[in-house]
Amino acid sequence: MNATFENNLLLDRLPKHLKQFIKPQDYNNYTPINQAVWRYVMRKNVAYLSQVAHRSYLEGLQKTGIEVDTIPSMYGMNRILTEIGWAAVAVDGFIPPNAFMEFQAYNVLVIASDIRQLEHIEYTPAPDIIHEGAGHAPIIANPEYAEYLRRFGQIGCKAISSSKDYEMYEAIRLLSIVKEAEGTPQATIDAAEKAVEDLQNNMGELSEMAQIRNLHWWTVEYGLIGTIKNPKIYGAGLLSSIAESAYCMTEKVTKIPYDITAAYQNFDITKLQPQLYVTPSFAYLNLILEEFANKMALRTGGLSGIEKLLNSAALGTIELSTGLQISGVFSKVIAHQGNPIYVQTTGKTALAYREKELVGHGALTHPDGFGSPIGKLRGINLAIEDMSPKDLEAYSILESETVKLEFEGGITVEGQIVTGSRNLPGEIVLIRFKNCTVTHGETVLFQPEWGVYDMAVGKKVVSAFSGPADASSLDWITPLPLSSTIKAQPTAERDDLEVLYQSVRSIRNAKDTTACLVIIFEDLKQNHPKDWLLMVEIAELLNDRQDVVFLSEVLAHLEQLKTNRPEIAHLITGGLELIFNNNTNA
């Protein structure tokens, strides 16, 4: 079965720059060992998390069609998620934070379709289908939490990054890949860890994206809910880690009341978290999100917002008080008394109103950048956007008139007006000139030889945010990651072990009544003496069959394995507890 990301109309709404991250989920790539890893983790999770997770977790498993015994297909998930207003897509590991959050804004759950290797069954720093499918998906069945996730994505994707944020993303992505990959030399892991550490120590002031990424980590990924003394788990990172979900409930982890200061608490994806934040309710998460959003350039605009875009050196947008939106890479701002009086972009630029590109004002019209004054005219209290037709006539701001507009701060625009454009409320948002010269003191900002001049109208900058106003503008394509996940390489030994795992799986599913557990057991002991998970599965089948004699032999072997491999002794114990305590509904 080749499961794809079909069967959910929400996916049709996704813009092109997000669709590039989607990859098909080839279900045939999941091996019998992969299925066994999924089953073990899910059985452990359902048994333990039923006691410590928010009640939405178990309810969500049923609502989202997540099965305990079988890795979910994206096709099946999308069919079921449609009923709760969401969709899911498969991606390759970590994707850029702004893209990840924008998917959420479209009610689309991003799922890394790879699955952790057996050696990392308790925890992997790389996102995988256990983390995403078994961690994120069940909780979004809670409508209040799902709205928080959507709203977080809507706001988070507008957060402005610093020029170092993308370097950090690539470094963390690479580290997660090499730590999860089989047989990575320790020197490679050490180098990747050092690269992340060096960047963390030299990030400077945290950008908006870095801060909101922290909020995402301490809520969506590693959040607790309830009270400090009696918290419950809802964060996907905890729900998908059989080690950390238990560890986080101990006194070794400091529990902190969740508030906006979490935005300044960084995290390390490679280590157990030393502290976690506890929210009293899902509704409270939205209160903190709005508190943070009120401080973002998205809502404050102004000179500081433009400066954040300048520092990001990436595509961004400012919105003027008229609603006109300028999207491009901002390269210059001229300020006067703490206010921006002129902005300049470089390269392809587009103008929009209410997130829709203005006809005739896309990249074809503005291929080399766009510059415009901002603010009021000198000595006139009435801004151009607030002028009535009589006011405009009084100041000769009319078609075919040659005018000299002197703005506060020293920007002068002199030329012949060709036409003007108005927004829906009737305010002038754009004035086109010919034979136009724009100056700031002795500095020429635009001259007649460059063609027509389009001047944006707005007395102030009310918003600044990452990305274009209209997602279809500027052929905006977020750069794809530089690194790719490393797949486990097949070997004769592994292939033989996969056959044994499949045989046991077929026996459990009653698809193979001829396979002999004794032969599988002897093959496993002789040719794969370090494997423990299949031994546990054999013990489970023997217990179901009430084959006491054979079961005692298998248990003796498992006890010997615990002695020979003490690092996995607790995993064997955990698996046997599932069998003999019968405290799971798997």
UniProtKB/TrEMBL annotation:
Biopterin-dependent aromatic amino acid hydroxylase family profile domain sequence ranges: 1-342
InterPro entries: ArAA_hydroxylase (IPR001273), ArAA_hydroxylase_sf (IPR036951), Aro-AA_hydroxylase_C_sf (IPR036329), Aromatic-AA_hydroxylase_C (IPR019774)
Cofactor: Fe(2+)
Keyword annotations: Iron, Metal-binding, Monooxygenase, Oxidoreductase
Residues reported in the UniProt entry to bind Fe cation: H131, H136, E221
Molecular functions per Gene Ontology: iron ion binding; oxidoreductase activity, acting on paired donors, with incorporation or reduction of molecular oxygen, reduced pteridine as one donor, and incorporation of one atom of oxygen
PROSITE patterns according to UniProt: BH4_AAA_HYDROXYL_2
NCBIfam families tied to this protein: PRK14056.1
Protein's recorded name: Phenylalanine 4-monooxygenase
Source organism of this protein record: Flavobacterium crassostreae
Lineage: Bacteria, Pseudomonadati, Bacteroidota, Flavobacteriia, Flavobacteriales
